[in-house]
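Case study 2.
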Amino acid sequence: MKNQLLVIFMFMVAFLGVSCKNTEAEKLKSELALKSDQVIQLKQQIEHLQKTNGSLLDRMSDLSIVSKAGAKSIEKSLESLSTQYDFIQDLTTKIQTKDSINLALVLNLKRSLSNINDEDILVEVRGGLVHVSISDKLLFKSGSSTISGNAREVLGKIAGIINDHEDLEVMVEGHTDDVPMNNDCIADNWDLSVKRATAVVRMLENDHYVEPSRMTAAGRSEFVPKSDNETATGRSTNRRTEIVLAPRMDQFFKLLEAPELVN
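Prediction:
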C-alpha cells in the first residue's frame, strides 16, 4: 500500500513539473511573439523615418539649389543696376558738358555779333542745338540767292566761331515765306531756299575756310515757318537762313551708345 502511494505521489510531482514547464513555455512563446510584433513595428517606424529623412534631404537640396540660383540672379541684377547707373551718370555728365558747350557757343556768337541789329539776327538754343537765324534782308536781295556785301562780315564772324570748334557740324537751312516765287533763275520757293543755303555754304568754305565735309546745305522752303504768313511782319520773319551748329553725328551716337548690360 505504501509503495502504491509513493508511485502515485511521484507521478503527481512529475505531472505538475511538466505542467509548469508547459505554462512557462507558453508564456515565453507569447512574450516572443510580442517582441516579434514590436520588432516589426520598430522596423516599420525606421523605414518611415528613413523615407521622411530622405524626403527632407531632397527638399533641402532643392532649397539649396534655389538659394544658389536666387543669389546668382540677385548678383546679376545688382551688376546690371550698377552698370546702368554708371551709364546714366556718364550720359548725364556728357549732356551737361554738351549744354555747357552750347552755352559757350551762344555767348561767343552773341559777343561777336553784338553790333548787328537784333531784328536781323537771333542766336538761341533749340532742341539741344545752337541756331543762328539771319534775316533774308541781311544776306540777300529780294528773290535773289546772291549774297550781299554786308553779309560777308556777318558770315565771317560766324565762321570764326565754327573754325574754333572743330567738333561741330554745320547745317545751313534756307527758309522762305509762302508767297509763290518764279522767275528766269528761280523755279519756286524750294529752289530759292536751296540756292540760298548753298550760297552761304560756298562763302563759308571759299572765303572763310570752313571745312566742307562739316557742312550741309538744306532748303526748307515755306514749310517750317516761325511766324504767321498772314502778315507782312510774319512773312519777313519766315524769310531767313538758319545756321545750325550740332555735335558731329558719330560723337552724338556714341553719346547715346549704352554699354553692354548684364542680363
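The longest strand covers residues 168-175.
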